[in-house]
């Protein structure tokens, strides 16, 4: 049984299309989202923490909206910005930009406690750069191990396999009732993601691309 780790039911709805019935279940677990300027170290660290929680195979899904003229903001801070400012305020900020191009990105991080054979997709091994991005190591009870002589948790350094997807688009005034999150203000090919059915969004979306690659790889595992 694979656990799809997210507090967001909208993500699970989209993922179910790619993962055969009965092979995946949502794990509503709020893993620690570290501060980093890209999604991969956040997802990789989350996958190790979720694996420790679940004790079996987990897939963590970290996504974000990257607005070109704002140097990628809100990017990894998308969740915080949606919860504090809200998407209408994001639209108000973007409305005045000459260039409203943006991308949605998704990183899936898979961990089942095993190593992986070499493949084109990146594998995060919790090496020094990933560790630096991740900040101080945390013990299983959540306390910081920085400066302590305690051994690191057994899951630190576990290989995590990453799958990434992106969709280009632009920020527009909110339209549509479907999807979730920033979907109403993100337009791709003339339609916002909130104006698309789940199947149509999956066919073009960041999550759809990442899930497709993952599902293909996972079927052989
Ligand atoms: P989990 O971390 O529990 O999975 P979350 O909704 O916080 O749930 P993310 O951190 O990955 O997930 O999402 C960052 C933000 O981007 C958050 O505000 C989401 O609503 C939004 N988001 C993620 N995927 C999206 C999508 O496909 N379309 C629109 N908004 C999306």
What this model shows, in words?
With 221 residues, the protein is an alpha+beta fold. It has one domain: Alpha-Beta Complex (Maf protein). The chain is built from seven helices and eight strands; from the N terminus they run βαβαβααββαβββαα. It has helices spanning 9-16, 39-54, 78-84, 87-95, 128-134, 198-204, 206-219; strands spanning 2-5, 24-27, 58-67, 101-111, 123-124, 160-171, 186-188, 191-192. Strands 1, 2, 3, 4, 5, 6, 7 and 8 form an eight-stranded mixed sheet that branches. Helix 1 (9-16) links the parallel strand 1 and strand 2. Helix 6 crosses helix 7 (206-219). It is globular. Residues 132-152 have low confidence and may be disordered.
Mean pLDDT: 87
Terminal Cα span = 13 Å
CATH class: Alpha Beta
Q: Look up the CATH topology.
A: Maf protein
Q: Uncertain regions: pLDDT < 50 for 5+ in a row?
A: 132-152
User: Can you give the helix content as a percent range?
Assistant: 25-40%
Number of domains: 1
Report the strand count. 8
Number of continuous helical runs: 7
Shape: globular
Briefly note the structural class of the backbone: alpha+beta
The CATH architecture would be: Alpha-Beta Complex
Strand content: 15-25%
Ligand inventory: inosine 5'-triphosphate
**What is the string of SSEs from the N terminus onward?**
EHEHEHHEEHEEEHH
The Cα radius of gyration reads 18 Å
Biggest beta sheet attributes: 8 strands, mixed
């Amino acid at each position: 049984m694979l656990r799809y780790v997210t507090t967001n039911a909208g993500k699970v709805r989209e993922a179910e299309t790619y993962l055969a019935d009965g092979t995946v279940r949502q794990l509503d677990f709020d893993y620690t989202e570290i501060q980093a300027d890209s999604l991969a170290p956040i997802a990789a660290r989350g996958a190790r923490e979720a694996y420790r929680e679940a004790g079996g195979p987990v897939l963590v899904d970290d996504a974000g909206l990257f607005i070109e003229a704002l140097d990628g903001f809100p990017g990894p801070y998308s969740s915080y910005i949606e919860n504090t400012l809200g998407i209408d305020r994001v639209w108000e900020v973007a409305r005045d930009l000459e260039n409203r191009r943006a991308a949605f990105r998704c990183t899936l991080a898979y961990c089942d406690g095993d190593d992986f054979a070499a493949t084109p997709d990146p594998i995060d091994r919790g090496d020094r750069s990933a560790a630096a991005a991740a900040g101080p190591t945390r013990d299983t009870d959540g306390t910081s191990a920085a400066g302590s002589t305690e051994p690191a948790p057994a899951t630190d350094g576990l290989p995590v396999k990453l799958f990434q997807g992106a969709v280009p688009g632009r920020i527009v005034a909110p339209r549509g009732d479907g999807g979730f999150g920033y979907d109403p203000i993100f337009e791709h090919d003339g339609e916002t993601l909130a104006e698309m059915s789940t199947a149509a969004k999956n066919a073009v979306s960041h999550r759809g691309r990442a899930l497709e690659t993952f599902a293909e790889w996972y079927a052989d595992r």
